[in-house]
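Task 17 of the worksheet. Students: predict the tertiary structure of the chain below and write it out as structure tokens. Keep your answer in the requested format; marks are given for formatting as well as content.
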Amino acid sequence: MNNILKIISVLILTISSLRSLILFALNINASSSINYSSTIILFILIIIFSKPVIVFFERNTNNLYQIILINFAAGIIWFTTSCLINGFSTGSIREFLMIFVAPFSILIFLNVNKSTICNTVKFIVLIISLSCLLDFTVSNFFPGGIIGAEIKNYYLMKITPPETDIVPARIGNLVRSHGITGSYHDSANILTFTLIFLIGDFFEKKSSKILNMLLIFLGIFALITTLSLANVIAFFVGLLIINFSATKYLIARTILSFGFIYVILFFFNSNFNLFEYVLPQLDPTGVKFQAMLNTGSSTAIQNIISFIFGHENLTNISNIGYFSEAAFVVLLSNLGIIPFITLMLLLLYPIYNYLKNNSGHNNLYNVIAVSIAILTLWHYGSLFRSTSIFIFYAIYSLSIKKMNRVND
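Model answer:
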């Protein structure tokens, strides 16, 4: 059974994150129907192999299982209310699956050894990194210009559904890397927390140091090419935390970590004047920063009502979720206070459990990766897309595995 779960977990992770690569290799153009169908297949696998019905009827006293079930119950109420207001819609079904059903995948990943998850994550990071670097090179370096833009557009249209309004984005003269996911936010989101996970694994392991170091260097380089500043900043926060999480080898670790960052930033600034384009984006009085702080035109009372009952996009009681770029705010206004709290309890469970059990540096590195993934919700919500969510829950399972006494 464990071998079957290994295969299923690898399928879930690779199909969800590298679906575009598979379609591209088969010379099949992406479409909404293909994306939706493949996502449904993933959830069918999750429902079959996580055995949620058995978990429910076993009345398991494990806190994690209880939180997953409570979150699911809150989701049923949320989805039922959504259907009563607006009838069945693909948007509501998608949110229900990603937010309330996807956590059941944890029950699969908990029964898969760390090496399987880690190797799969490394493969995904490698493919996304290479695709981002190739994207950036073609768009900005060679051939660049109009020809580079045409090449990028051609492949971007092949891996994104025609209904998806994704066009090459820029910061100044720099064209941002979308990568194999078709979105610079999604590619950056995956790289942000998986790189923190891999850095923790690098500090922990005694073998394959050179290969792991090269993959991390490649991944950081690729992350910068997306120019997704919120994700890049979240990565730097994670790097600071993980670097100073232990005193042993602190000086060597600091030189190595920030030496990498310095070399990469120096390269980009020397060749592409990166700081000239990026620093204005961080100006609190600038257009970009002010857009991030936009809370719409609804009153405080209207916002509170939406936060309590949710479904802002259906009731139109307020518009804070429509204008806000903070995923936390969007989630709260759409889910309502009770489903939002159950979701946050689930997401924060590894942090709580680590503090409660004080389970050592091995789990600390994984908990930091989970924490940084949650932190990325301060801007957009790529974490709750099928490309990111299952990798997140795979790393999540590793952060609690020893706490729940599941053999590695």
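Marker's comment: Residues 404-408 have pLDDT under 50 and may be disordered. The longest strand covers residues 170-171.
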